[in-house]
Design a protein that fits this description.
Elements: H1 6-19, H2 22-27, H3 31-39, H4 42-45, E1 52-63, E2 66-75, E3 79-88, E4 91-100
Antiparallel strand pairs: 1-2, 2-3, 3-4
Length: 101
């Protein structure tokens, strides 16, 4: 069981996105989610992230062991992330990730 709630893990990850903390962001991704991001062209975009000023957790749904979050980010570019978080070995990890403009 993770030491923190899934909501706190999501907030910490979103704050890392705002500050451009790529190491923290990558630590929160499972290999599958990283592969999805790379396949969608997001791997290169991580190094060229827009300046973001805020985030809003729009929704949180539970489906079995998965926690599905919809999060909107605002800044130079506005986008929405749909992230599936899961307890992986006692830590909250992003198991699936989709980006919307």
């Amino acid at each position: 069981m993770p030491d923190i709630s899934v909501e706190e893990a999501v907030r910490q990850n979103c704050q890392a996105v705002l500050t451009g903390d790529l190491m923290r962001i990558m630590t929160d991704l499972t290999p599958e989610a990283l592969g999805q991001m790379a396949a969608a062209g997001g791997g290169g975009a991580m190094a060229q992230m827009p300046t973001l000023t805020s985030f809003d957790i729009v929704s949180h749904e539970v489906a079995g062991d998965d926690h599905l979050f919809k999060i909107s980010f605002t800044g130079d570019q506005n986008f929405t992330a749909r992230a599936t978080w899961r307890d992986v070995g006692g830590a909250w990890k992003i198991a699936a990730l989709e980006m919307e403009q």
